[in-house]
Amino acid sequence: MNPSFPNPSLPDTERRNWLIATSAAGGVAVIATAVPFVASVTPSERARAQGAAVEADIGDIAPGGSKTVEWRGKPVWIVRRTPEMLAALQGQEAALADPTSARDQQPAYARNPARSARPEIFVAVGICTHLGCSPTAVPLGSANPSVGADWHGGFFCPCHGSTFDGAGRVFKNKPAPSNLEVPPYRFLTDTRLLIGEDGPAQA
Fold this sequence. Notes:
By secondary structure, the chain is of the alpha+beta class. It has 2 domains: 1-40; 51-203, Rieske [2Fe-2S] iron-sulphur domain (Rieske Iron-sulfur Protein). The chain is built from 3 helices and 9 strands. Strands 1-9-8 form a 3-stranded antiparallel β-sheet, with no helix packed on it. It has a 3-stranded antiparallel β-sheet with strand order 2-3-4, with no helix packed on it. The longest helix is centred in the N-terminal third of the chain and has 29 residues, at 12-40. It is globular and about 75 Å long.
């Protein structure tokens, strides 16, 4: 007779007690196997999955260069703008849908023409506000016919043609309804950025 099953000759009460005992033992075994799996997930990985702030090194970004980090499962661009890139933000206000960033797409300290806490460092979520596609950077003077000959530099979404300037402000008559999102962030040092958490005061 298989010892893993109760003897059918046992009284009903004893058979019921046997089934309860074996079920409890099985539950302990499942918990025991789950513990190593949970322990294998490091605190930083769990925190990131829950949307915790992400630290980024910006000291290695050259003028005009950029890097992308992940925060809450989203790509976040960090761009070190040159004086020429900042100058190109001026004079296009009439062509922009929300030139003064009146809509709530950024923290208060980024509600300015550069849409940043420090003009030279631009931080934005790299997701088009139309249907969630990923725009690409198109620099000033690009030969890309999709952005026009008078392009001042910025971002172009190839999915449906939305265009954004170098501060992520959307141009009029495009599918995207609003500017690119600027996440909360703060400078830990001149070369370290914390994305996902506001600072007391931005320099």
